[in-house]
Amino acid sequence: EREEVTEDIYNKIALEWTAWNIWETLPANKKHASDTDDDGDGFEDEDPIDLIDNDGDGLIDEDGRKLRRAPRKSFDKSGELAFVGWSEWSESYLPTNGLNEATITSPNPRKFVQIRVNISSEDPFKTARVSNLRIELAPPLALELAGELALISEEGTQRGLADLSVLPMDYTPPREINPLEPQQFSYFIRAAEPDPTDATVRDGFNEVLIVAPRAARLTGVRLGQVEVVEVSSLLDPDQAVTNAVATSFDRVFAPDTDGILRSEDGAALTQMATGADSVWIRFPSSLNADLPADTHALIEIQFESQIFREGIEYVSYVRSSDTEEGVFQRVDANSKDATELVDSSTARV
């Protein structure tokens, strides 16, 4: 029987097979030993085979656990797995303002949408049925949105927000976070141009919303651009992915004496009214209009927040204040590369 899996689950299975295939080719003196400090840095099993630098030391996959057997589940799309590439199911939709409608919150744009309707009845002699279902489509404010979360390192704190010549050492992956202290985070959003075939969205978006698991305090914003290339996925050679290769910042919004975030030319950000667990910003102009070829816009939003448990995702959206509907488009943060400055590929802590 074929099994339906989400993109996240499929990528996990594919990565397990990638790790096993790499392990099989390693000479005996290069294979990891479990519960051992393989690289002599004082930590054990902190950088397993996953094609990324987990501990920020510039090395990749140098210290992990011993792999004893191949994964039990195949990742062949034509085999037991089906519907590969779907996002996780969204939260259940509830009526909005008394109407049986709600904004779709799953990552988009997408080519397909899948709907699941749960029906229940308290009367065993009566059943419910769906008589009508309508989906309204809106042109994308960005043809691609990628999100990536990082912690600001000690070097990044010392560099300061106004210094635009940032380096990878200014950030670390959001792992092993101390729950007893507030942390300084950077949320990166990489945005492609809007749909060029639809004049109603040619100006892109000028608002960003980040929903945090707990109260978040905005501390600064950097704006810039990032050069991108399209390459074959390491997990699935038939799938193309976008990689960020060169980031450059050219504008910063820092707090003034009144606590308002302003750029050097005096332009101010507007912090929209929202809950304490959200950061909602309106920028004075579009963030992703008129981009050069092979270039995406990059927004770095710095904020302070405290985390008490792992596995929580920071969800983000973009919106245009110029459209009547004000539809939010969700940022995709599942195994995405927003900037080469960060190597987390996630918005989870």
TrEMBL record:
Stretch list, region Disordered: 30-56
Residue stretches of biased makeup (Acidic residues): 36-56
Name of the protein in its database record: Uncharacterized protein
Source organism of the structure: marine metagenome
